[in-house]
Write a structure and sequence with these properties.
The chain is mainly α and 206 residues long. Helix content is 80%, strand content 0%. The protein is globular. 36% of the residues are buried.
Length: 206
């Protein structure tokens, strides 16, 4: 897999990054961590630019998410789940993966699309439940774009800084992302609790 990514990006440059990031939404074994990290390495040696790498990676990923969203919206949860049960093994997709993404979306709505782009293994799948729920297409694209831009920027910068050691991104980025998201959730919870307490105090005073 790594050799394929290296060859495609080496031969096609920005186009290779865009195409791979689009396909990564559907073919789960293709890791976006390696695609964008190698793009960052190409920037470090002067063959590509960071801005171009991040832009093409982001655009490719957003475009690749649209077919998944459309499938979820047109076919619905039951038919997609039935297809996954019969054929999902060919793209390493299981019912429990789909259920996990659906549960996440039902709990968090549009925020799940944004933060889902920062979670390996969830990135492509979160488009399906968004389609099931018939999420507004403009909101879907906007939240997907925001999350993907963050993801691609972080990975490209890591690849740029690590140089020839860019494959390490694939090994270490997941725990780092989970820790960062955990901190973000904790901060949001504290902020929400404080806001509710302040509102209760104001009602008491009134």
């Amino acid at each position: 897999m790594l050799r394929t990514i290296v060859r495609l990006i080496g031969a096609l440059g920005y186009w290779g990054i865009g195409v791979l990031m689009a396909v990564e939404n559907v073919v789960l074994p293709i890791p976006s961590e390696l695609i964008m990290a190698f793009g960052g390495f190409e920037c470090a040696v002067g063959r590509l630019t960071l801005a171009g790498t991040i832009l093409t990676g982001t655009i490719g990923s957003v475009i690749g998410a649209l077919p998944m969203y459309a499938v979820g919206r047109v076919l619905g949860k039951e038919r997609v789940t039935a297809w996954v049960d019969r054929h999902g093994k060919w793209i390493l997709l299981r019912r429990r993966d789909l259920e996990r993404a659906r549960t996440r979306f039902e709990r968090h709505g549009g925020r799940a699309v944004l933060f889902g782009q920062l979670l390996p293994g969830v990135r492509g799948l979160i488009s399906l439940p968004a389609g099931f729920a018939r999420m507004d297409i403009a909101l879907f694209v906007a939240t997907n774009l925001a999350g993907t831009l963050i993801w691609c920027t972080v990975l490209a910068l890591l690849g740029f800084l690590l140089g020839v050691k860019y494959p390490l991104v694939h090994a270490y980025v997941r725990p780092v992302i989970w820790i960062a998201l955990g901190g973000l959730v904790a901060w949001g919870t504290v902020w929400l609790v404080r806001r509710r307490r302040a509102a209760r105090r104001q009602r008491r005073v009134a």
